[in-house]
Amino acid sequence: MKVVGLITEYNPFHFGHLHHLERAKIETGADYSVALMSGSFVQRGEPSLVDKWTKSKMAIDNGVDLVIELPVMFSTQTAELFAYGSTLLLDSLNIVDYIAFGSELGNLEQLQKIADILVEEPPYYKHKLKKYLNMGHSFPVSRANALEDYFNEFNIKIEQNNSVKNILKMSNNILAIEYLKSLKTLNSRIKPVTIKRIGSLYGETQINNKIASATGIRNTIFKNNINSVKEYVPYATFHHLVDYINKYKKFNTLDNYALIIQYLLRINGRNKLSNIMDVEPGLENRIVKKSTQYNDLDDLIQSIVTKRYTRSRIQRILVHLILGIDKTLFHELLPHYPAYIRVLGANDKGLVLLKEIKEKSNLPIITKFADYNKYDNPYLNKIISLDKKATDLYFLGLNTIKPFMDMDYYTTPYVKKT
Fold it and tell me: For residue 32, what is the enclosing H or E element?
């Protein structure tokens, strides 16, 4: 039995994801696939377009064997923490042989060179990083500049007529490097494989390719209607998108939380905001000040953004604010993560994987949500309670006539049997 692990958001599942899944199976020779998937909120600091069970159905019906939820305490973090939390949970299953991730570069050797330096953090690199941060650059830019200087100083070659800074401009390359860092830090037995990204670039806002980006697909849905993306997603995805919109009447966006965010910014003040994840000293002052000047959420976010503070970072901070994920809570829970395996969907082969996980992993497997109480683990309770809060907030954002509460208790994993 060979198992390939995929770290995903499927927001929504599109032809690029299908290509990645198929190539991952071919290049690893894997018989089984397991996707670790973000749930209600995603890494760029937004609610998912559709709920996590709809995304799980898309994944299973498009060929993934088992879908496990990535807890929200990691799904909304920086690329480094997102990758670490994902890799650690996959490693803890004790059945995964390969992790296959996309990258614009498509060259594992070159990505590994960068990852090795970031794990080792030699003095020259650390000196340069501090220099660029002190100049007011964002962390991603400072890191890219410091790495470029290091490679030049020690005459380390990057092939394919490329440069470190160019490589680190691409979102999938950045995540790929973080996965490699995490595997090395964990001394994991999982072997990495990278699949070269094809079609539209990550974050491409328009649909201009049969293999469109998730951002382009979402934007097209918001600007037009669901039928406008019918030719740009697999049939199973479109089918589940239609089912979702018929049931809930609207897709989710961060704008749906504008009033909640403004309320929290105005009542909590600088002291509480300074303890929210990803807020560095001084940033809380800027956020609170700008919140008194703008009611429109997009205008507020854009007014906070600088070359040091990216849009995604500001959005993640606001999501952490509404979820109540602060530094104190995160660092309290971190030593006790992962605490469980939350199943969102499976096919027949996925059920076989679950049996293997049960035999080889020490983590409890949660298929029926209420069962988490029987483990009598206060840290498990706190971590999974954040996921329940994220689910409740997700449905609150839809502003449906009928409230959808406690959906974690009422929704069972999607099981597809042949």
Answer: strand 32-38
